[in-house]
Specification:
globular; 42% helix; 4 domains; Helicase, Ruva Protein, domain 3; Heat Shock Protein 90; 569 residues; eight-stranded mixed β-sheet; Ribosomal Protein S5, domain 2; alpha+beta
Length: 569
């Protein structure tokens, strides 16, 4: 019996083995399924990486990418930007967005590639401050429009007063990441030059802190040289006039700094350089390296300065990296950055935020991993801002507002870990301070460490957080002087008003005790609490507000009278 059981078990195993062999997949079968993935196909399935993960955010992202392109184009052409943004509600959850600028326009051959080809642009390989970098933004918006509505994106562009305008309707072929031109024609356009983009997409319009309305307002604050004309889906138009007629300083391109090089990047540069010797490579292809410094690096690495760069092996490149770290090299040049500046940032703040006290700080340029960056901070205190609840935090990178992922951002961590109680505000542990305050933080850099391709938050690099906190503390000390002065004035005024309330009773008692006239005593008591001293202190507060300005003393005295009245109320 045991024998027959063994035979059946053997037959069963043999059957399973044969069946397994029949269904086995070979390496050749697997190879047939492999194919190259287009970058457009990748982002088509992973649109959330680019900021198109919900309808409200998708509408904002599409407009943001178009506005960023317009601002960059105008600034590079040295044109004061005038940008029109219009949102038209076509049906429920479907909108048409139209963004038009007065920039230099785009030549006909470049229109399809710029708007309907991912990873196409002129900024990726440049080390200089710029809003866009990867060449993904506007073409990703075109792709999203196509995916959600099926309609082509319409582009109209003109490069000069005596030129004809080119009109195109485009689709993006996601299989091979290439543009498909649906319409190509010449049209009359009454503008001298500029570009207009029109696209339909599924989205959601809502007001609030993460709305298109707020994005346009914040963009106007951080770009004081630009004028924005914004029309929302309710046909309400808002005009944000420019605060200055001066264009920002043009940032210049710099070469890679040796301290920022990683091994793989160095090897790539060595293989592609046109320099004939290692020493000339270090001088010509890198930033801030002179011939003497280059020779010192070669000597430390025990490498011949006359070696051909392409012949350097991986092990020798490692020695070169180590030698660079042990050599004193000047910091990178700083003309690759274009900050807003204290005065202009304060002027822009006053234009858009109704407050009673403003302070702005621009920190010196700091270098991290060979990349220069600079932090600017602005505080707007009091006025019509809500007095209850957390402060309003506005975050910017290279003149672009960051409206999402506030909790994950290095800017937020810097504010939360700063002791605001020392500056006259209340604050709970691990939370934003509470009070009538708007905090603006702006970082400019050739390399902004965003946490994702959607560019919504900055990574938590300790060196960056330290610089932001230093700027916040410097601005906070100036705020502290004003807030403490205001509290002292309020306390003095409350005491004076309390004593003034009892003057008639005190005068009556003194009159009965001394026999003097009650009215005379009452007048003398009022003179004792004359509010001129309090007014003088308010005058000092007003001078703190206008520190560095050309306000006349008469104007400041009028401001002091008004402030005294406000405090009494």
């Amino acid at each position: 019996m045991g024998k027959s059981v063994d035979t059946r078990e053997g037959e069963s195993k043999t059957g399973k083995s044969a069946k397994s062999a029949a269904t086995q997949v070979t390496a050749e079968d697997l190879a047939k399924k492999q194919r190259e993935i287009s970058v457009a196909e990748f982002f088509e399935k992973n649109r959330h990486l680019l900021g198109f993960d919900n309808p409200r955010k998708a509408l904002l992202t599409a407009i943001k990418e178009a506005v960023d392109n317009s601002l960059d184009a105008c600034e590079e052409a040295k044109i004061l930007p005038e940008i029109s943004v219009e949102i038209i509600e076509m049906s429920e959850n479907r909108y048409r967005i139209i963004v038009e600028d007065n920039g230099p326009g785009i030549v006909k051959e470049q229109i399809p590639k710029i708007f309907a080809k991912l990873l196409y642009g002129s900024k990726f390989h440049r080390l200089r401050q710029s809003r866009g970098q990867q060449g993904i933004g506007i073409s990703a918006a075109v792709m999203f429009s196509q995916l959600t509505t099926g309609r082509p994106t319409k582009i109209l562009s003109k490069t000069g007063p005596n030129k004809q305008a080119h009109y195109m309707e485009l689709h993006l072929n996601t299989q091979n990441n290439s543009p498909e031109i649906m319409t190509d024609e010449v049209r009359d356009w009454d503008k001298d030059r500029g570009t207009r983009i029109e696209m339909d997409l599924e989205g959601s319009y809502m007001k609030g802190n993460q709305s298109v309305d707020e994005y346009i307002r914040q963009t106007a604050i951080v770009n004081p040289h630009a004028t924005f004309i914004y029309t929302n889906p309710k046909a309400e138009q808002f005009i944000y006039a420019r605060a200055t007629d001066a264009l920002p300083k043009e940032p210049l391109e710099i070469k890679p700094h040796p301290y920022g090089l990683e091994l793989g990047i160095l090897v790539k540069l060595l293989k592609t350089t046109e320099s004939r010797t290692l020493q000339s490579f270090l001088v010509n292809d890198l930033s801030r390296v002179g011939s003497g410094t280059a020779k010192e690096i070669c000597d430390t690495a025990l490498l011949d300065p006359k070696r051909r760069p392409g012949e350097i092996s991986m092990q020798e490149a490692e020695k070169l990296i180590a030698a660079i770290k042990n050599t004193k090299i000047m910091a990178p040049t700083t003309d690759c950055l274009s900050p807003i500046g204290d005065e202009l940032l304060e002027k822009s703040l006053k234009k858009e935020i109704n407050a009673e006290f403003y302070v702005t700080i621009t920190r010196p340029i700091f270098v991290y991993r060979g990349n220069p960056f600079q932090v600017e901070v602005g505080l707007a205190y009091g006025g019509t801002q809500p007095r209850d609840g957390a402060v309003s935090l506005l975050r910017f990178a290279n003149r672009v507002p960051l409206l999402y992922q506030q909790g994950a951002c290095a800017f937020t961590k810097s504010v939360v870990t700063t002791n605001w109680k020392a500056y006259g505000l209340s604050q709970s542990n691990g939370a934003l301070p509470v009070g009538p305050l708007t905090i603006i933080i702006h970082m400019v850099s050739v390399w902004v460490p965003f946490t994702s391709e959607s560019k919504e938050a900055l990574a938590h690099y300790p060196e960056i957080i330290k610089e932001i906190k230093l700027a916040l503390q410097e601005a906070g000390r100036k705020l502290q002087t004003y807030v403490h002065k205001k509290h002292r004035v309020q306390n003095q005024l409350e005491r004076a008003n309390l004593f003034e309330r009892y003057i008639p009773e005190v005068a009556d008692s003194l009159s009965r005790l001394t026999g003097d006239n009650k009215l005379v005593i009452e007048q003398k008591l009022k003179e004792m609490i004359n509010k001129e001293d309090i007014k003088a202190q308010i005058f000092e507060m007003e001078s703190l507000k206008g520190e560095g300005k050309d306000d006349t003393s008469d104007d400041s005295e009028e401001d002091a009278d008004e402030s005294l009245q406000e405090i009494e109320e």
